[in-house]
Automatic annotation (TrEMBL):
Name of the protein this chain belongs to: Diguanylate cyclase/phosphodiesterase (GGDEF & EAL domains) with PAS/PAC sensor(S)
Parent-record interval covered: 560 to 809 of 818
Annotated ranges, domain EAL: 1-250
Amino acid sequence: MAMERDLRRALENEEFELYYQPQIRLHDQQVIGMEALIRWRHPEKGMVSPSLFIPVAEQTGMIIPINEWVIRTACEQTKQLLDRFPDLSVSINLSPYEFESRRFVDKLARLLADAGLPPHHLDLEITERMTMDTERALDILSKLKGLGVTISMDDFGTGYSSLSYLTDLPIDRLKIDRSFVQHIQGKKDVILPAIIRLGHNIGVKVLAEGVETETEAAYLQGKRCDEAQGYYFSPPLPYDELVRFLNEQR
Ligand code: G
Ligand code: G
Ligand code: MN
Ligand code: NA
């Protein structure tokens, strides 16, 4: 497959780059971390969106070396920031393939050790879809938690699973999907406060994604949402610009 060859070459030629979107704690507006988002600077096509190549990478198995690169790079770059910003943590998006791989826990431990990043500075984003088999998810998640990393449930509210499983899973944070935030001014207003309360009732932090306006940020803070991420605070930034953003915040 042409795209698979392209992806392999992209890794070898260092065409991938990580962007980082800051995550803000609402009550004091402090940056508490950032989500790493991969970008592909294709020599002919320009910037290729991950929504185009991640599915191909997953089908071809190229997701394994690509995400190894993502984790290594995110850990190394975050490690470099800890001297100046000791409380930061970096979130990475896991794909179902690695989540289910028996070797992933060992690999993650090795990547953290290689980078010298204390594990509590790494957050793994999983989706509801990955936890449909609750027993299996419990087993994998408890091993990952055993390393000392944290777990976030990404795109929360868009999945198919029943809510009953949530209390059983050792997760640290719900990331509310941006589709709920976009409805703040509309009729679905009841959903957001309900999700925030649900998160707090099961003892996890709640982050709202896709916050684009001051009105949305203020509303969420009023509803006691813990954290937020979105264009209102910052788009995903190249590493150098992230460093600048962090320095300007202090
Ligand atoms: O940043 P952007 O909106 O273009 O990302 C599109 C999608 O690609 C998002 O759903 C995001 O979760 C996913 N994505 C971004 N970076 C990675 C990555 O490193 N690994 C995986 N598996 N998915 C990613
Ligand atoms: O699925 P995941 O949540 O990992 O995807 C994150 C994606 O959301 C990234 O591709 C990022 O570019 C995009 N994104 C980040 N902030 C905003 C925002 O405020 N509005 C919109 N529409 N998209 C956003
Ligand atoms: Mn995400
Ligand atoms: Na999301």
